[in-house]
Amino acid sequence: MNTQSAINTYVKEIGGWAASQLEACTRCGLCADACHFYQATGNPEYAPVWKTELLRRAYEQRFTIAGRLKLAVGLDKRVTDEDLKHWSTIVYEACTLCNKCAMVCPMGIQLGPLIHEVRSGMAAAGVVPGDLMSATMKQKEVGSPLGVTGKTWAERMEWIGDEWEVKIPVDVKGADTLVVFTSIELMKFPDSIAAIAKIMDKAGEKWTTSSNGREVVNFGFFKADEELTKLFLNRVFEAAKELGVKRIMISECGHAYDAFRWTAANIMEVPKGVAITHIAQVMHDFWKAGRIKLKKGIYDDGTITFHDSCKIQRRGGIIKEPREILKWLAPRSFKEMTPNKEQALCCGGGGGVISIQEADPLRFAVFGMKVDQMKEIGAKSVCMVCSNCRLQFTEGVAHFNSDVKVRGLSEMVSQALE
Amino acid sequence: MGEKTIYQQLKEEGLSRRDFMKFCGLLSGMMGLEFVAPAKALGALARPDPARMVAEALESKPRLPLIWLELQDCAGCTEAISRSPSPSLVNLVLNKISVDYQETLMAAAGFQAEQAKLDTMKKYHGKYVLVVEGSPTIGENGVYCTIGGRSNLDLLKEAAEGAAAIIATGNCASFGGIPKAQPNPTGARGVWEVITDRPIVNIPGCPAIPEVTTGTIAHFLVMGQLPKTDSLHRPLTFYGHTIHDHCLRRPFYEAGKFAEGFRSEGAREGHCLYKLGCKGPTTYNACSSLKWEQGLSFPVQSGHPCLGCSEPHFWDGGGLYQGQSAPLDRPSLAAIGTAAGVGAALGIAMAGANSLKKRNAGKTTPPPDKGSSE
Amino acid sequence: MEWTDILRFFRGPFFAVSLIIFVGGMAYRLFRIILLGWPRDRVESRGSKAVGIVRTYLKGLVLFPFIPWVKRTFGKNSLTYIAGGLFHLSLVLVIFFATPHMLVWKSLLGFGWPTLPLPVADWLSAIGIVSLLVLLVNRLTHPVLKLITKSPLWLNWTLVFLPFVTGYVMTHHLFSRYEVLFSLHMMTVDILLIWIPLGRISHFLFYFFSRTIHGAQAGKRAVTP
Questions:
Q1: Which of A189, C68, C118, C220 is deepest in the core (most CB within 10 A)?
Q2: Could you read off the pLDDT of B266-288 as tens digits, one per residue?
Q3: B343 chain-A contacts, CB cut-off 8 A
């Protein structure tokens, strides 16, 4: 463990953006009740403001006179090895970076990104939960956090194509759209991959996948290791450049959309003229443009609701598109959970939490709140556009013995194609 | 001593017994004989009758010699007293009872007048009352105010030496007054800052309310000692409350009805003058209770905010029409600008140092660990 | 040393000094932060940052403070919302619209404005005092607040509370002579002015950074802030 690395990282990376927000905090504590981990457990250490404590200390003690004075007279403590270990658990296992806290903060402080910054220091110090670390290493070495090799990937894709009778193009130069899937979809929800392939074909899109840029998940992003984040992003960018595509489409994944669309350009050179899109947007655009036609009301067989994924809806802005589709597919049965849209409750599996076994009790405790939400409206099924959420929901409903059906919107849309 | 008592003198002047008792009653009221303790101490009755006390005093005591010195003054306090409507208490007290020397009012002048003063001082050494109007000036040994070729400090010390008590009338004598306003070029002071070994009472005001001056003189006459005072040596009887405490416009203050300007609706309605700079709340004087011109009116009643003229430094009290709550010292725009500039410069310097720190931290950060945590 | 002299001191030279320290201190804080580096945002916006900023200010300053119960976090934090909101309302209204304070501004700026009737300003300051007491109790009992509160915050509370209380007592001429009360009020105000740049009370300045950042990031993503 190298605590000094963490501090150096904070010192290096805190600029006016972080500093002004750290200064703005009034210690009002309202962020606590916006955090689903705090709500589910009542542990005050899960208050978002407490999660950023080490960042505050590093900032004040290095950049301000007041901070140094407080340290000198014993009114504040240095960041120690124990602190790093303790907070590592909190920021990796009791936070999904869902950013609900920022919505509630009276000052509007972006606590999610600040907690990401805390993780960044932990990553530099090597204080990262073991499961997350090994998943990240697997992605670095093999290309997938689940350890799926290129060979396995190709074999699996071929199988999906056969099984669902869809064409899945690979490494097609000159295609317009590069579609990148997640290992989760590959291994757990292959129907989603088949569905997306079907939709792209039906829409007549010139699309392809890439054997090199085959993983859209970014564990470097979860770990908050900028080098690895860039490495994993670059694999896809290089593929995009090599294949000469006009846009990259992210399949059902949340944090990948955050990483590619809202983060990449600020940490590295991104290929020019290559747009970043998400399947939720794309299939909505196809439908609106008449490139695909959907059967109306084919899912009117019981109340269905939509789960907003933090990185796609609240932090991504793709809010009305999935709803318009759902309202077409289930005009009489679609009901919103409360809260919803940009105020929606996180599923509890994002931010890498789902990959950490020790965090299981926590993520299920949080998921209990989703179960309550669905019960409240009598939902028979729930759909979403993020496969990480889908995995959390699948495991969650099993854990709670709920009979709510968990679906992906893409596979629903593909079933409804006319 | 063979001297006539005051009563005898007044009787000779034609004052009837009846009028004398009325006079005593008025005098006792003017003195504000609320302070029974002094009365008891004088061995008076168990339930003292103030008027009777006064009568007994005047019947038994001889005339009180009084010297009235004017130093650096405008003679306003004298004018106020002499302008009181007659026949009046004030006239009776001053003209009939005392005053051997008063520059403005006396007919005599020149060296003879000065000699008369010195004679009184010699004859009644230790017994006369010294009233001082106008401020002593200590600048350059008192050269800024000289009378008959002698400095005011000289004259004051000479007169004070044999005085039984000193009454400083008006803000100038009490606290320095207008001459003391910044930058105080003459070195004006209150009398009590120059004469420290004599009992002194301050009757501040600009001018002092005539009845307050004469009431205090009367108190000394009747009781043989100066009245009880506050920490600024002002008689509590008259200076125990602020203008605000007894102001007739107080209900408007409480209700928050203020005159916005001198020609405003509020002014016509007689609303509180707080917004026009009234210093009533911090000004101790009898204006709102005793009033002026024998109870006719006082500034606020007539529509003008109180200037705070019985308080020390009132000329430097921040503008006569400036709200009483306003700060007395405002940093100039230049000072504020400088402060902001210095602050900004220090902030920039600190930011520079911090930026340097950031750059160095970047250089020394070891690459991220490859292994997992403990 | 007379109370009139003490009053002159705290209304006079000490006030001027504290105002200068306040301005200099806030300038220092501002520039120390501003020049710490703001990398350019190279991410392409989906929506308008400006729209996001305007919306978040309207929601955060004009709308939600007056209807806090619509927030989901209100239930468990009603004291914080209500007392915090009322305190700020009282603070702003009393500082700018109570007659004695308006006269202070008038002497500093050269112009004044209409003010609230005294009984209204009076009630508002009483509400401010009660709110502060409620917030104190809240901070002493709420589990999260107990965890995150360090000593400077107690000082913040005290230095804000004292001017409120002394001002109220002064207006009502309670307990002592007016110049004593006025002196205490000015003393506590001057000390507060000096303390503000040193701690978290200067959040009123940094609010504009965090709110703008929040609005911009929401506007960029075309999300309602």
A1: A189
A2: 999 999 999 999 999 999 999 99
A3: none
The closest of C100, C124, C122, C102 to C113, measured between CA atoms, is C102
Over pLDDT 90: what percentage of chain B? 45
**A321/A262 same-domain check:** no
| Residues A28/A106, Cβ–Cβ less than 8 Å | yes
Q: Tell me if A1 and B361 make a contact (CB, 8 A cut-off).
A: no
**Average pLDDT over every residue of C48-72:** 92
pLDDT at B88: 59
Cβ distance C121 to B256 less than 8 Å, yes or no, reads yes
For C53, counting Cβ atoms within 10 Å of its Cβ (0-12 exposed, 13-18 middle, 19+ buried), the class is: buried
Q: Is A115 in the same domain as A138?
A: no
Both A201 and A284 in a single domain?
A: yes
Q: pLDDT tens for residues B149-181?
A: 899 999 999 999 999 999 999 999 999 999 999
pLDDT tens readout for residues B94-138: 565 666 777 777 777 778 788 888 888 888 898 888 999 999 999
Interface of A with C in 345-404 (CB under 8 A): none
Q: Please identify among residues 133-152 of chain C the ones whose CB lies closer than 8 Å to any CB of chain A.
A: 142-152
Q: Which chains touch B (3 or more CB pairs under 8 A)?
A: A, C
Do A15 and A65 belong to one domain? yes
A296 within domain boundaries: no
Contacts of A227 in chain B (CB under 8 A): 367-368
- Distances from the Cα of A17 to the Cα of A26, A99, A124, A364, angstroms: 17, 16, 21, 34
What CATH number does residue A15 fall under?
1.10.1060
Distance CA B292, CA B312 (A): 21
Interface contact flag, C27 B340, Cβ < 8 Å: yes
Report if residue C39 sits inside a domain.
no
The residues of chain A scoring below 50 in pLDDT are: none
Of A29, A266, A319, the CB nearest to C80: A29
pLDDT at residue B194, rounded to an integer: 93
Q: What is the number of domains present in chain C? A: 1
Token pair, residue A286, equals 């196809």
pLDDT at B352 over 80: yes
**Class of the CATH-defined domain B241-326:** few secondary structures
Contact across the interface for A27 and C202, Cβ inside 8 Å: no
Assess if residue A299 is contained within a domain.
no
Using a CB–CB cutoff of 8 Å, tell me whether B197 touches chain A: no
Chain B residue with minimum CA distance to C25: B343
What are chain A's partners, defined as 3 or more CB pairs within 8 angstroms?
B, C
Confidence band (pLDDT; 50, 70, 90) for B87? very low
Taking the C-alpha atoms of residue B11 and residue B15, their distance in angstroms, rounded to an integer, is 5
A221 close to A254: Cβ distance less than 8 angstroms? no
Instruction: Count how many pairs of residues, chain B against chain C, have C-beta atoms within 8 Å.
Output: 144
Q: Specify if C22 maps to a domain.
A: yes
Count of structural domains, chain A = 3
User: Residue A50, SS3?
Assistant: helix
Is the same domain home to A19 and A71? yes
Asked whether the beta carbons of A225 and B368 are under 8 A apart, the reply is yes
Q: Is residue C211 part of a domain?
A: no
pLDDT of residue B370: 41
Q: What is the pLDDT of residue B265?
A: 94
Mutate: best of B244, B328, B333, partner C, most C CBs <10 A:
B328
**Domain hosting residue A153, numbered range:** 132-288
In this predicted complex, what is the ipTM?
Answer: 0.93
pLDDT at B86: 43
Q: Is the pTM of this model over 0.80?
A: yes
**Any idea which residue has 């070495």 for tokens?**
A141
Task: Answer yes or no: do A122 and A15 share one domain.
Answer: yes
Say what the pLDDT of residue B44 is.
53
Q: Are residues A338 and A379 in the same domain?
A: yes
Query: Hey, where are the domains in chain B?
Result: 63-239, 241-326
Which CATH number is B63-239 given? 3.40.50.700
The answer to whether residue C186 sits within a structural domain is yes
Of A288, A315, A338, which residue is a domain's last?
A: A288
Round to whole Å and give the CA distance between C77 and A392: 30
Establish, for the pair of chains A and B, how many residue pairs have beta carbons separated by less than 8 Å.
Answer: 58
CA–CA gap between residue C219 and residue C225 (Å, rounded): 7
